[in-house]
Write a structure and sequence with these properties.
single chain, 195 residues
């Protein structure tokens, strides 16, 4: 990796948790300069403005979340185990896998009316998450783990939406009690659809 690319990546890695914690609008270039110890001139050599850096930070946060999730799921063989592991991966919103909480929820809520580029990135990530879940279920149906009449796409949407809602509720209350209820409910649905 060239020196310039290393510096660019360093800036993104330092900026990502700040944007995910404070939000795009509330994060200033001064915040990033303080975290990186780089001058304003150095920052603008690599990013023409805050919006370009914010988009890179959004992508970085979502990639980090996805990489950690994939690493977790790869430890499990059966589709049922993978669905349970997916739920468990998100079971502690007050100690999230990515600093600042779920980047899809954070950036999606902020960008839905204000930033069409970030909105599209988050929407794409949501679709990818639903596809991942639906594919796990389809694989489970093919291997006779789940009932053949279970609708993978519908449950993928329900699971994703319930976990995101639970994340919000848990972060607001400061405890994971609601997420525990949601996780247990989702696991019961999975068990009811198991063969």
């Amino acid at each position: 990796m060239a020196k310039g690319e290393e510096t660019r990546q360093f800036i993104i890695e330092k900026a990502a948790p700040i944007f995910n914690t404070k939000g795009i609008a509330a994060t200033s270039m001064s915040d990033i300069m303080e975290a990186t110890k780089l001058s304003k001139g150095s920052m603008y050599v690599h990013f023409e403005n805050k919006e370009v850096l914010a988009c890179a930070a959004v992508e970085h946060n979502m990639k980090m979340l996805n990489d950690k999730l994939q690493k977790t799921l790869s430890k499990f063989k059966t589709s049922k185990e993978q669905l349970f592991a997916y739920i468990d991966f998100f079971s502690d919103p007050n100690h999230p896998p990515v600093t600042g909480g779920c980047p899809l929820l954070n950036f999606g809520t902020e960008a839905d009316d204000t930033n069409p580029i970030v909105k599209e990135k988050v929407n794409h990530a949501i679709k990818q998450s639903e596809k991942l879940l639906a594919d796990i279920i389809k694989n489970g149906i093919a291997h006779k783990e789940f009932r053949s009449d279970w609708n993978p796409a519908d449950f993928a949407t329900v699971l994703f939406a319930m976990l995101e809602g639970g994340h919000l509720m848990s972060r607001m209350s400061g405890n994971n009690a609601k997420m525990e209820v949601i996780g247990n409910s989702l696991k019961k649905i999975i068990m009811k659809n198991s063969v």
